[in-house]
């Protein structure tokens, strides 16, 4: 069975979830129109504590648009969720204490990585010497 969406004005009167929904007031809604280079900006704040601000600016030799922004809200347990980000030619780069991070490397991990890098470098040097030697024949 598929899911079917319907306009809000067609929600049955006995739909208690829809009837119980309380509209969230918009406390701030500031917008900067899109300029000729694709730049824009906005700031939004709602009555339930959500804030979101974003700015986009064209820069660089090809006028790539880079967006920077942040949003903030409260989790049901009261924990503040704050995320700042940059998005552009290098992708979406979020920063937040709420994002998972890799486990820190132990000293022996780093030693193993360095050992593997040395082995790769030695193998590449040996292959290069072999190619040079084959060219002399």
From TrEMBL:
<dbReference type="Pfam" id="PF00379">
    <property type="entry name" value="Chitin_bind_4"/>
</dbReference>
<dbReference type="GO" id="GO:0042302">
    <property type="term" value="F:structural constituent of cuticle"/>
</dbReference>
<keyword id="KW-0193">Cuticle</keyword>
<dbReference type="InterPro" id="IPR031311">
    <property type="entry name" value="CHIT_BIND_RR_consensus"/>
</dbReference>
<protein>
    <recommendedName>
        <fullName>Larval cuticle protein LCP-17</fullName>
    </recommendedName>
</protein>
<dbReference type="InterPro" id="IPR000618">
    <property type="entry name" value="Insect_cuticle"/>
</dbReference>
């Amino acid at each position: 069975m598929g899911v079917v969406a319907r306009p809000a004005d067609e929600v049955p009167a006995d739909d208690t979830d829809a009837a119980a929904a309380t509209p969230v007031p918009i406390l701030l809604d500031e917008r900067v129109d899109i300029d000729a280079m694709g730049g824009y900006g906005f700031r939004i704040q709602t009555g339930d504590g959500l804030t979101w601000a974003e700015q986009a600016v064209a820069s660089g030799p090809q006028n790539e648009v880079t967006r920077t922004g942040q949003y903030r809200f409260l989790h049901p347990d009261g924990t503040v969720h704050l995320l700042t980000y940059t998005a552009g030619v290098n992708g979406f780069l979020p920063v937040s204490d709420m994002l998972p991070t890799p486990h820190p490397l132990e000293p022996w991990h780093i030693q193993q990585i360095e050992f593997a890098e040395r082995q790769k470098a030695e193998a590449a040097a040996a292959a290069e010497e072999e190619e040079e030697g084959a060219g002399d024949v």
